[in-house]
Amino acid sequence: MLYYFLYPLRYEWFGFNVFKYITFRAVFAAATAMILSMVLGPFVIRFLYKLKIGQEIRKEECPPLYSLHQKKEGTPTMGGMLILLVLSLTMLLWGDLTNKQVWIATLMTLGLGVVGMLDDIIKIKNKRSKGLSARAKFAGQIILSLVLASILFWDPDLNSSMREFYVPFLKEPLFTDMGWLFFVLVLLVIVGSSNAVNLTDGLDGLAIGSVVIACFVFTVFAYVVGHAGFSDYLGLKHINYSGELTVFCATLIGAGLGFLWYNAPPAQMFMGDTGSLALGGAIGTVALLIKKELLLFIVGGVFVMEALSVILQVSFFKLRGKRIFAMAPIHHHFEMKGWAETKVTIRFWILAMIFGLIGLGSIKLM
What single string gives the DSSP state of each residue in 305-339? Predict the structure, then answer.
């Protein structure tokens, strides 16, 4: 909105010319989102307490976990509403509202947030740790993924580049036109990333800290692939108008850091599925829009670890009747082994930074 109204005034005063620079708006978007999150946080926490939207930890479903996390029972959940509210307000202020990719990323994030919100509401209403059935949750994610794939597939301004498929460390696309396989790719990326972040959200600060790190990496990539000069120098695919996603990713960083202020151990509120499904979908959508889908598996290495630990645990138990880990997702395994919650969180953040640095390091090799 500020870009739309103030940039045209550059002819009246040259100072307004700064609003055309993505870097300027990205920095101020991050700062605005962080400040808004920290200011609105206490109001959201009180609102959730008033509605008695508290975390349910059922002893009969997992006695070992209950003993470790009993003190968290009743802590407000659905705090992801704060992130979504701040994201929407900040993008309205600092984003270029004529940019299709900004709208696609923002609406996809909000759509998955609604799916997560329904899941959280059912959990709270029924006073149990399980909300939407797996089938219903997957249905919501699949519908949104297919809508996104359809837009990217048929939009004349986007489809020429969206159908290409790139592999990290290779300069040329592996496929120049994926055809209908593109729908499968979008489905796997969105459903996979949203559920992987959801599985990671089990300890105070773990998921949001890892998301912030991943968003920082994609902020850099979004700016580079959206800049004709930089992308040409680095040998990366230049994607028109994707530079504006820099503002989107920077906003997620600011909103995430502001939320972390209240989610740091001991957490004053949890993001719930409202936040985790939305944030996972957000980074998945950005990865698709800048054609870095496979790089997401490197940058989001922590999320991949968490998802794989659950898949391996369930599969091995069905095949052999034994468990690989003391508990899955894997962050609970380390808790069962005696690690303090903060130690698990900080060490996973360190891993997230390492994965992020590997992702950034590939920028000249891709």
Answer: HHHHHHHHHHHHHHHHS--SSSSSSHHHHHHHTT-
Task: Compute the Cα dihedral for 329, 335, 341, 346 and give only its sign.
Answer: negative
- State the Cα–Cα distance between residues 194 and 202, nearest whole angstrom: 14
Question: Are 96 and 20 within 8 A, CB to CB?
Answer: no
Rg (CA), the chain: 20
pTM metric for this prediction: 0.92
The Cα–Cα gap between 343 and 337 comes to 12
283, 255, 141, 187: CA torsion to nearest 10: -10
- State which residues form the domain around 39: 2-364
pLDDT digits (tens, 9 = 90+) for 294-332: 999 999 999 999 999 999 999 988 888 888 988 889 998
Residue 359 · residue 298 · CB < 8 Å: yes
The total number of structural domains in the chain stands at 1
Asked if residue 129 lies in contact with residue 162, where contact means CB atoms within 8 angstroms, the answer is no
Backbone dihedral angles phi then psi of residue 190, each to the nearest 5 degrees? -70, -50
Length in residues, the chain:
366
CA-to-CA distance for 79 and 278, rounded, in angstroms?
12
Name the burial class of residue 169, with classes exposed (0-12), middle (13-18) and buried (19+) by CB atoms within 10 angstroms of its CB: exposed
CB 83, CB 110: distance < 8 Å:
no
pLDDT of residue 19: 73
Give the residue from 259, 260, 277, 248 showing the smallest Cα distance to 36.
259
**Which residues, in sequence order, are CB contacts of 180 under 8 Å at separation 6+?**
none
99 contacts 125 by C-beta, under 8 angstroms? no
